Amino acid sequence: QVQLVESGGGLVQAGGSLRLSCAASGVSGRTFSGYVMGWFRQAPGKEREFVAAISWSGSRSSYADSVKGRFAISRDNAKNTVYLQMNSLKPEDTAVYYCAADSKLYGDTWYMRPPEYGYWGQGTQVTVSS
Q1: Cα–Cα dist 47/49, whole Å
Q2: What is 86-128 written as a DSSP string?
Q3: pLDDT tens digit sequence for 35-77
């Protein structure tokens, strides 16, 4: 059973930066590098939405249009950790951010759909003040 723990959230002013981390454990039997990792967010009263995803090796990534050019996803397979660097933050980025993992092969656009992921973290709050 894969466990995911997010960290790095907090309160930041508009224009500021944060880096979220998601540490994975319980990946015995299949290494961390065998999982596609995604970041999602959910604001109050809204559905959970895709933010970014990264392939097993880290060579491929995808972003929501709303964060392109501002956010960057990366992973360190030696540390079983995926990151989300968030720059030029806006008040509309305020949400609970979740990381997710699944062992399906990166491709098509399944990684943009929350139900496709088998494992989820508990979330970390990001609040951007104006």
Answers
A1: 6
A2: E-S--GGG-EEEEEEEE-SPS-TTGGG-GGG-SEE---EEEEE
A3: 999 999 999 999 999 999 999 889 999 999 999 999 999 999 9
